[in-house]
């Protein structure tokens, strides 16, 4: 009964502070989406480069691994003297953390394309660029999007740390709720974050299905 009362109180807190909630949710979602889109923009081309050149792969994957092992708060602390408080340093920390899953899955997806399919495409006279665009990338899309979905879910959770440098987001309610022992406020910030993670995962899964449907015809050399 106490648990039900707590959730009712959390719902009431959200309703009573709905305008503030919308502002925090917008900040949180913006931070996550911008970080993930930037990570996709950087990680996919780097993954293609790494798949083509072994020396570049060693360097790129090392940098990616380092970015994942350094805690987000540590990255924020490093960029704080340069960027100050607010959205930008939070974005840098989140982007750095979102990079590796997409990078790793891009390389893995491209490397796991059946070599006989690639050789058949070469035999038909396709250039390496055409093979990448019409064969490897379409076949690697499911693996790449698995990395994107992982990054999106991780970023939703990591974005709560933006509170510590004035980046806003749902962390304002969650961390304030912890500090004040205000469970309804804490849950009013935490539960929407969990739903947001599920929603983004479903969104990227939908985009993946659309892309794989559109590129199905490119999955054999004959279609090129």
TrEMBL record:
The chain crosses the membrane at residues 29-49, 94-114, 160-181, 186-207. It comes from Haloarchaeobius amylolyticus. The keyword RNA-binding does not apply. Residues 25-204 form the ABC transmembrane type-1 domain. One of its GO terms (cellular component) is plasma membrane. This is ABC transporter permease. InterPro entries: ABC_transp_perm/SBD, MetI-like, MetI-like_sf. It is found in: Cell membrane; Membrane. Keywords: Membrane, Transmembrane, Transmembrane helix, Transport. It is a multi-pass membrane protein. Its main location: membrane. Belongs to the binding-protein-dependent transport system permease family.
